[in-house]
Automatic annotation (TrEMBL):
This is CotS family spore coat protein. It comes from the Bacteria. It comes from Ruminococcus gauvreauii. Keywords: Capsid protein, Virion. Gene3D superfamilies: 3.90.1200.10, Phosphorylase Kinase, domain 1 (3.30.200.20). InterPro entries: CotS-like, Kinase-like_dom_sf, Spore_coat_CotS.
Length: 333
C-alpha cells in the first residue's frame, strides 16, 4: 500500500499520532508537533542551502519558518520502503491570506518586507536568477516567433485568431519594458543585489502566506533564488491586483505598506513599475500554446486571454497613476 512517505517518519525519531493529506503532501501530528512530508525530486545541494537560509531567518527571530529537518543520520532527504525520496519540514496550522481582505493583504506585504530585511546570504552562483533584462528580451523573441508561425498558417483556430488580434499591442508593451530596463538603473540594482547576497522567496503568493499564531508567515521556500527582492513584491502585487482589476488604491496601499517596513529606493520603485508593465500573462498564454498541441487549445485559455484583454484599460490606468505621487518625481516614474 502506498504510504505517501509516512514510513520515513521513523528515520526522524517521530511517532505519527494522526495524518491527513494537504496540497500534495502529508501533514502529520507527532510528539514534536506538526510536520509535513512531501516527495522530493530536486537538488540535495540546493536543499542544504535552503535549510541554511531558513535557519538564518529563524535566528533573526523575525518569523516562523517551515524549516527542512535532518533525519537521525543528519540527512535532509529520506527514502521510504519503496525507495521514493521525501523531505520532512516543520508545519503550522493556519489559514491562507484572504485575497478579498485589505487588512490581510497589507499585513502580508509587510511580512514580506520584514522577511526581506533578513534574507541575505553569500552568493552561490548556481541559484542566481536570470537577469530580468535577459528574461524579458527572450520572452519578446518567443512572442514574435509564435506570431510569425501563426501568420504563416493556412488555417487558424479561434484561439490563434484571438492571439494575433492583440499580439502586436502586447509585444509593443514588452519591447517598451525592455527599453525602459536598458535606460533605468536595473543593471546596477541587479549587480548590487548579487554582491549583497539578496535572496527572494521565489513564489510569493496568497497560498504561501498563512496566518498562524495571529501573524502572517511565509511558507514553501522551494523556489528561493538570488535576485532583486522587488521580484517578490512584484509577484505578490500582480497576483492580488489581477484579482482586483488593477485597483490603484489597493496598489498604493501595498506599495506604502512595504515601504513603511523596508524603505524602497527610487531605482527599486521604478523597477517594480517596469515589472508590472510587462505582459507576463499574455506571454504565459503564448508559451502554453507553443508547448502544447496546436489543433486543440482548452477553452479555459481563451477565457484567460479575454480576461487579460478586458483588464488592459484598468492595467494601463494603474501604471499611470499608482506610482506618480510615490515619493519621487512623476517625470522619473
Amino acid at each position: 500500500m502506498y504510504d505517501y512517505g509516512l514510513s520515513v517518519m521513523e528515520q526522524y525519531g517521530l511517532t505519527v499520532k494522526s495524518s491527513y493529506r494537504g496540497r500534495g503532501a502529508l501533514i502529520c501530528e507527532t510528539q514534536r508537533g506538526l510536520k509535513i512530508v512531501k516527495e522530493y525530486r530536486g537538488s540535495e545541494k540546493k536543499l542544504e542551502a535552503q535549510r541554511k537560509l531558513q535557519l538564518h531567518i529563524l535566528e533573526s527571530g523575525e518569523t516562523r519558518v517551515d524549516c527542512v529537518l535532518e533525519n537521525e543520520e543528519g540527512k535532509l532527504v529520506s527514502s521510504d520502503r519503496d525507495g521514493i525520496p521525501y523531505v520532512v519540514r516543520e508545519w503550522f496550522t493556519g489559514r491562507e491570506c484572504d485575497t478579498k481582505s485589505a487588512s490581510d493583504i497589507l499585513e502580508g506585504v509587510k511580512a514580506l518586507a520584514r522577511l526581506h530585511s533578513v534574507m541575505q546570504m553569500p552568493l552561490e552562483e548556481n541559484y542566481r536568477k536570470e537577469s530580468l533584462l535577459d528574461e524579458c528580451t527572450r520572452h519578446n523573441r518567443e512572442i514574435r516567433k509564435i506570431g510569425n508561425f501563426i501568420r504563416k498558417k493556412n488555417s487558424r483556430t479561434d484561439f490563434e485568431m484571438q492571439l494575433l488580434r492583440c499580439m502586436d499591442s502586447f509585444l509593443k508593451q514588452g519591447e517598451t519594458a525592455v527599453e525602459q530596463l536598458e535606460r533605468s538603473g536595473y543593471q546596477e540594482l541587479y549587480r548590487t543585489a548579487m554582491e549583497r547576497g539578496s535572496v527572494c522567496h521565489g513564489e510569493c503568493n496568497q497560498h504561501n502566506i498563512i496566518w498562524t499564531g495571529g501573524r502572517p508567515t511565509l511558507i514553501n521556500y522551494e523556489k528561493w533564488n538570488y535576485d532583486v527582492q522587488i521580484a517578490d513584491l512584484y509577484q505578490f502585487m500582480r497576483k492580488i491586483l489581477e484579482k482586483h482589476n488593477w485597483d490603484t488604491g489597493l496598489g498604493k496601499s501595498m506599495l506604502n505598506g512595504y515601504h513603511s517596513v523596508k524603505p524602497l529606493s527610487e531605482e527599486e520603485v521604478l523597477n517594480l513599475k517596469i515589472r508590472l508593465s510587462y505582459p507576463w500573462k499574455f506571454w504565459k498564454l503564448v508559451n502554453y500554446y507553443a508547448n502544447n498541441h496546436k489543433a486543440w487549445i482548452s477553452g479555459r485559455n481563451s477565457e484567460k486571454l479575454q480576461l487579460v484583454m478586458r483588464q488592459q484599460k484598468a492595467w494601463s490606468e494603474f501604471l499611470k497613476t499608482c506610482f506618480s505621487d510615490f515619493l519621487f518625481s512623476s517625470d522619473t516614474l
